[in-house]
Amino acid sequence: MGIASTIAVSGLDAASLRLQVAASNIANSLSDGPLPDVPDPENFPPAYSPLRVNQTDVAGGGTRATVSTVSPATLSVFDPTAPFADGDGFVARPNVDLAGQMIQLLIARYSYAANAQVMRADAQMSAALLNITA
After folding, report:
1. Average pLDDT for 25-46
2. Can you tell me the distance from the alpha carbon of 37 to that of 90, in angstroms, rounded to the nearest whole number?
3. Which of 66, 56, 65, 52 is closest to 97 using CA atoms?
4. Pairing between β-strand 74-78 and β-strand 63-69 as defined by DSSP bridges
5. Of 23, 36, 39, 114, which one has the fewest beta carbons inside 10 Å?
6. Average pLDDT rounded to a whole number, residues 54-81
7. What is the greatest pairwise CA distance in the chain?
8. Average per-residue pLDDT in the chain?
9. Domain residue spans of the chain
10. Spatial distance between the Cα atoms of 102 and 109, rounded to a whole number of angstroms
11. Rounded CA gap, 29 and 95, in Å?
12. Measured between alpha carbons, how far is residue 122 from residues 36, 61, 81, 85 in Å?
């Protein structure tokens, strides 16, 4: 595998992680819970903590993707029907921007396609080189 393919594989890994994180955030965007500072005697599960992908360059080529939590993780929303609502009717809702998550899905899609194309081109160049030298 050439250096171009090695770099492309790191991009494929980052795109895959971006897809997983966006899917998790979308699936859990309505996973409310009690407010963090409110006593929870019935032990309701906390609200989902949304994630984000941080992508950085690697010396020598490629990329590294890590996951961190979004800050602030939750927002207070009015839902007096929730069993874990505080005295004023507020609950913690995950701080998920659905439009932003859809953009992350598109970024993952195009990144994956671009890196796959780099791998195809690297394989074709290697094959052409072997045909010339053979």
Report:
1. 94
2. 12
3. 52
4. unpaired
5. 39
6. 96
7. 79
8. 94
9. 3-133
10. 11
11. 8
12. 51, 15, 58, 56
- The pLDDT tens digits of the residues spanning 73-110 come to 999 999 999 999 999 999 999 999 999 999 999 999 99
> Which DSSP string do the residues of the chain spell out, in sequence order?
--HHHHHHHHHHHHHHHHHHHHHHHHHTTT--B--TTS--TT-PPPPP--EEEEEEE-TTS-EEEEEEE-SS-EEEEE-TTSTT--TTSEEEEE---HHHHHHHHHHHHHHHHHHHHHHHHHHHHHHHHHHHH-
**One-letter amino acid of 31:** S
What is the C-alpha separation between 50 and 41, in angstroms, rounded? 24
CA distance 32 to 77: 9
Side-chain-side CA neighbours of residue 38 (13 Å): 21
- Residue 53 β-bridge partners: 67
- Return the amino acid letter for 109: R
Residue 131's pLDDT band, with cuts at 50, 70 and 90, is confident
